[in-house]
Write a structure and sequence with these properties.
Elements: E1 11-15, H1 29-43, E2 47-53, E3 61-65, H2 74-94, E4 99-102, E5 118-122, E6 139-143, H3 146-149, E7 155-156, E8 176-179, H4 188-198, E9 202-205, H5 212-222, E10 230-232, H6 238-247, E11 250-253, H7 263-270, E12 275-278, H8 283-286, E13 293-296, H9 299-306, H10 314-324, H11 327-347
Parallel strand pairs: 1-2, 1-4, 2-3, 4-5, 5-6, 6-7, 8-9, 8-11, 9-10, 11-12, 12-13
Helix pairs in contact: 1-11, 4-9, 7-10
Length: 348
């Protein structure tokens, strides 16, 4: 593993979204990024404390907060945020912290008043956050793509993955793959309709979180499209995910959301698998149309593009990922930003 230059140790507090554990097997991109980044920070010689739900996997010191009990309601979310606030205050009272990095959608609910440099990475579309995040004192915002940051004030550190962990023997098994959380904005039903239209096998993998809308969507719009040829296999642990990505004919991303990035597209390309995706949000920054896959605008165009994925070179996909999406590049960019903000805070 390539080591990021340290240039002096820092005590870094990373704060996850309260409801989901951090780790390689996490179903959410924010949790996966925190896991990878924190691992690299420890490898670089920094002291890491992570506040995250019980069951999280970290390389430094984990401060556990209780996981969500059952169905996720507004009351449960408020309780989880309260537990996070307590954990943050306890960590600040017990340890010297140089820098705080927030990764949760609701980070503004538990930002402490302590005069410590703070960074919040916006892993989701900006419009999903309240406008008040732009007025938080002593909190710098980071975007994960140029598209997400367009016309807004903030820094840009693009996401990365551990390219070295993905199989790339380029021997495919012919099935289509949708790998994401199962919810309306991810368009799982669209991917299934494409598979039916082409009469191709499909594997659907990813969590159905305990939000009522997500569970209703799965029952009403996804389950009726499943059959012996198009299967839902549940959440995918990291090793399973690697195998699925490596053997798929192509990855479909029929997302209806303005994607801020796409870790799964990066992972597919690292495994030598082309991506067929809606031209949504930052996906054109990730997928090179005609080189590592195809960008489309409709369900019909997606089906037509799948017919041509065999024209995409698996090696070109792998080379694209290696050149652009490494954790080494992401970690170096974050460390440079940490130091810049820490020095700026010390000069005030």
């Amino acid at each position: 593993m390539e080591k990021v230059s340290c240039r002096g140790e820092m005590n870094i507090l990373s704060v996850a979204f309260p409801l989901f554990p951090v780790g390689a097997d996490a179903g959410g991109g924010a949790e996966q990024i925190l896991y990878l980044l924190e691992r690299e920070l420890v490898h670089a010689g920094h002291h890491s404390i992570v506040i995250a739900a019980r069951g999280s996997q970290v390389s430094g010191c984990l401060v556990e907060t209780p996981p969500a009990p059952g169905k996720i309601t507004d009351e449960v979310q408020n309780w989880a945020r309260s537990e996070h606030r307590k954990a943050i205050e306890t960590a600040l009272n017990k340890r010297h912290i140089d820098f705080i990095h927030f990764h949760g959608l609701d980070f503004y609910e538990y930002v402490p008043a302590a005069p410590i440099p703070k960074l919040a990475t916006l892993h989701l579309p900006v419009e999903w956050y309240p406008k008040s995040i732009f007025d938080l004192p002593n909190v710098e915002l980071n975007f994960v793509s140029k598209t997400q940051a367009a016309k807004l004030a903030g820094r840009v550190v693009c996401n990365g993955i551990d390219v070295t962990h993905y199989e790339h023997d380029f021997r495919k098994e012919g099935y289509l793959l949708v790998l994401s959380r199962i919810c309306p904005e991810k368009g799982t039903d669209i991917g299934l309709r494409v598979a039916h239209r082409l009469n191709l096998p499909m594997t659907i993998a990813g969590p159905v979180h305990a939000f009522e809308a997500h569970q209703r969507y799965f029952v009403e719009q996804v389950q009726p499209l499943l059959d012996a040829k198009r299967r839902y296999t549940g959440p995918a642990e990291f090793e399973t995910k690697k195998h699925l990505l490596g053997k798929a004919r192509c990855l479909l991303i029929p997302s209806l959301a303005p994607e801020t990035s796409s870790l799964v597209a990066m992972e597919a390309m690292a495994a030598g698998t082309p991506v067929v995706a809606f031209r949504s949000g930052a996906l054109p920054e990730v997928v090179e149309d005609g080189v590592t896959g195809f960008l489309v605008n409709t369900e019909e165009e997606m089906a037509e593009a799948v017919r041509h994925v065999d024209l995409i070179s698996p090696k070109a996909c792998r080379d694209w990922a290696q050149a652009r999406f490494t954790t080494h590049r992401m970690t170096a960019d974050y460390l440079a930003l940490y130091r810049e903000l820490t020095l700026a805070g010390a000069s005030q």
